[in-house]
Amino acid sequence: MTASTTLGTPQLATPDLLRSVFRQHAAGVAVITAAQGARPVGFTATSLTSVSATPPVVSFGIGTSSSSWPAVSEATHVGVHILGEHQQELAATFARSGADRFGPATQWREGPEGVPVLDGALAWLVCRIVARVPAGDHRIVLAEAVVGDHAGEGRPLLYHQGRFNALRD
Q: How far, in Å, CA of 91 to CA of 156, rounded?
């Protein structure tokens, strides 16, 4: 085994180190939505993972300090939307603290189980929440897909190096 010249000096794990490491990890961009009375909630997530095909289960992380957490902590169902590269502005809106996420610029409709479904996504699911697992200052939400659509057109939106990106040919 030979020594690599690309290794730096190891650092103790800190929140800053974790963020720096994951800036190197390209991730798909999703928006998670939930109903909350008359005003829906939602947030941008890059932690979406397919967990199981049988039954069809996904997971995502949400900070307990997030403005969406109170609704997600009580919701029975959530919407999961896979965004396309044409939806960078939508992803930024749902990521921005204090933004009017369901304002006039956001096209959406009430979907199954009363869950907000965003228009124009590459694909979407309505999922029944089956567990909320504590994980530090976050919760990992496990949700079983109930209904959805994968017929959207376009290419996926990615998040890398702290910004939204499109695939390159």
A: 12
Q: What average pLDDT does the segment 118-142 reach?
A: 98
The boundaries of the domain holding residue 121 are 26-161
Q: What is the mean pLDDT of residues 129-138?
A: 97
Q: Is 132 within the bounds of a domain?
A: yes
Q: What's the pLDDT at 138?
A: 97
Residue range 41-77, pLDDT digits in tens: 999 999 999 999 999 999 999 999 999 999 999 999 9
Tell whether 13 is covered by a domain: no
Please report, for the domain that includes residue 157, its CATH number. 2.30.110.10
**Does some domain include residue 8?**
no
pTM over cut 0.70: yes
Total domains in the chain come to: 1
* 61, β-bridge pairs: 140
Beta pairing, strands 116-118 & 57-63 = unpaired
Burial 18-39 (b: 16+ CB within 10 A, else e): eeeeeeeeeebbbbbbbbbeee
**Per-residue pLDDT, 168:** 84
